[in-house]
Amino acid sequence: MPRPPSDRFQPAGKRKSRPKTDHRARQPAHEYELEVLPGLEHVAATELAAVPLARDIRGLRFWFPGDPERLTRLRSALAAYRIRTWDVPRPRGLLGHQQLGELTEFLQGVLAVGGQTSFRLGAAGKESVVMQRLAEELENALELPYRPEDGQLLIRLRPETDGPGWEVLARTTPKPLSARPWRVCNMNGGLNATLAYATHKLAGQRDVDRIFNPMCGSGTLLIERDLLGPSDALVGVDLDPAAVACARTNIEAAGRQIEVAQIDALHTGLAARSFDLIVADLPWGDAIGTHGGNAALYPAFLGEMHRLLSRQGRLAVITHEIRLFEGLLTGSTQWNARELLQVASGGHHPKVYLLNRR
Ligand SMILES: C[S@@+](CC[C@H](N)C(=O)[O-])C[C@H]1O[C@@H](n2cnc3c(N)ncnc32)[C@H](O)[C@@H]1O
């Protein structure tokens, strides 16, 4: 049997119907869990705490009786999953007649919101006979094709966190939330958008900031900042004309107006103290740039940003060249620096630093 949601989240009596887009409308509560890049848990928890009606928040797990569409607007999460727990000792138990009926109903609830057109299983041992049986049963019951590699409805199975049963997690959206709709141009070395969001939140968001994004690549940091709210100025540059074209394409797809130019970030010709916030995702020395090149680029970058930053300004830097970067900061007479976070992203473990002029 699946566990029922606790009583206080059940719809109380008959309610007036509300427009579907009103995320504050109470609906039957469901339990959810957010998936995030390891290292961004605290950023996601802060964002989640601001979601109206999210209740019983335990880490990134919570109950929510509002419109699930609201959860698709979370910017720090890779994905949101609806969860249900079954009192079965192993996945085979989900193949029972009653359990399969309940599981189908649970997944239909997710499909009704997410509109996925295929499904896949994400579980240890998904090639096993039991999982294959489950896939076949669900293919029939849901009338949805099973696409083991790229199915849109991602169904994960795992042992219950604090009990003897099994949990089924169903991703609420056909694509991860981190695959932003504005990203129509992909660039090698493009930043995970959830990390871009987190960097801006931790670096501080002020309407009066004049913001510079040197080495903007495909425009991730620019677009994520503009979507957060107004700023006094927002400008990006990149040396590579293909990157500038890519950023412009993405900016247009996002419906934003942000200035991007093909200029060397180290020789912009801009006046001293032009910016209050500089946010940079520097070449990491693998996909983009080389370690040798970075040894020269990084100190030159720090020197020029010191010139461009206002007296009270902030410089946020994302990099995977940790030893090189920290070596430059140790004993620096120009900068005070602190580490904001470190994440695991695409096989890398970049850090984000916040620097202030001494
Ligand atoms: C790690 S990538 C940035 C990726 C970007 N955050 C995104 O999401 O697409 C670094 C970028 O720095 C650019 N770059 C390297 N040296 C530069 C310089 N001196 N001036 C401007 N851009 C530079 C590269 O062309 C590359 O696009």
UniProtKB/TrEMBL annotation:
Gene Ontology biological-process entries: methylation
User: Which Pfam families does this one have?
Assistant: UPF0020
Cross-referenced InterPro entries: RlmKL-like_Mtase, SAM-dependent_MTases_sf
What SUPFAM superfamilies does the record tag this protein with?
A: S-adenosyl-L-methionine-dependent methyltransferases (SSF53335)
Occurrences of domain Ribosomal RNA large subunit methyltransferase K/L-like methyltransferase (ranges): 180-350
Q: Keywords assigned by UniProt?
A: Methyltransferase, Transferase
What terms describe the molecular function in GO for this protein? methyltransferase activity
Report biased composition (Basic and acidic residues) as residue ranges: 19-28
Name this protein carries in UniProt: RNA methyltransferase
Per the UniProt record, the lineage of the source organism begins with: Bacteria, Thermotogati, Deinococcota, Deinococci, Deinococcales
